[in-house]
């Protein structure tokens, strides 16, 4: 039964760069009450002639090892996507943040024109008392690259709120690897799978993708648990497995029936 489930998860989640590799499948199995190591999953896939997921284990993993002294509490950066809005093709800038220790991620804002006024409002939203992401996570430091979009006024607003504002070294994106890796995951989960018609569609899709990332998707660095797992008892192995589709099936999540 478990072997059939491994094959099912692999076959149903074989979309390009977002294909589920052996570790991703092992994480999903753990949430369903089956504790299999990644090697066992790999052997099952081999027996059934299922190749490894594309690009798994072929990246520059060593480059993403952070030097301890460069780690901040929060990392921020931009993703970009192209949309068709009222017959016009335009580029949207998506500001994202991740809490490095817990891996919880948030959408800070989306705009076609990241003006200084818009950036200042993002800084205020991040630092807002009681509800801002930096306040909720009790962050003491924030890290970003040298992009001119992170203006002096933007950085000053963060510093005035008590944040230690840090830059990553120039031309070394791996020093901000946590946010870089999250953005790549978000692209594979959502942004590369759709042609969006307007900003609202992008915002809704990203919100669903981040919710999945925070609450459902297993993370290897968190012992194959999501950053904010749902509360409740251990899965009841006597219950059937249900597949939940997000974004019309672009994202799959598996749970035991209640």
Report a brief summary of the structure.
With 258 residues, this protein is of the alpha/beta class.
Verbal overview:
With 258 residues, the protein is of the alpha/beta class. The protein has two domains: 2-59 and 228-256, no CATH class; 69-213, Ribonuclease H-like superfamily/Ribonuclease H (Nucleotidyltransferase, domain 5, 2-Layer Sandwich). The protein is 33% helix and 20% strand. It contains eight helices and seven strands; from the N terminus they run αααβββααβαβααββ. The chain has helices spanning 2-12, 22-31, 38-47, 116-127, 133-136, 152-160, 177-189, 199-215, and strands spanning 74-85, 88-99, 105-111, 141-144, 164-167, 241-246, 251-256. α1 packs across α2, α2 packs across α3 and α4 (116-127) runs parallel beside α6 (152-160).
Topology:
Elements: H1 2-12, H2 22-31, H3 38-47, E1 74-85, E2 88-99, E3 105-111, H4 116-127, H5 133-136, E4 141-144, H6 152-160, E5 164-167, H7 177-189, H8 199-215, E6 241-246, E7 251-256
Parallel strand pairs: 1-4, 4-5
Antiparallel strand pairs: 1-2, 2-3, 6-7
Helix pairs in contact: 1-2, 2-3, 4-6
Q: How many distinct beta strands?
A: 7
> Distance between the terminal alpha carbons, to the nearest Å?
20 Å
State the helix count.
8
Task: Tell me the major beta sheet.
Answer: 5 strands, mixed
Q: Could you report the average pLDDT, rounded to the nearest whole number?
A: 87
The level of helicity is 25-40%
CATH superfamily caption of the largest domain? Ribonuclease H-like superfamily/Ribonuclease H
Proportion of residues in extended strands: 15-25%
CA-based gyration radius = 20 Å
Shape descriptor reads: globular
Widest sheet, order of strands: 3-2-1-4-5
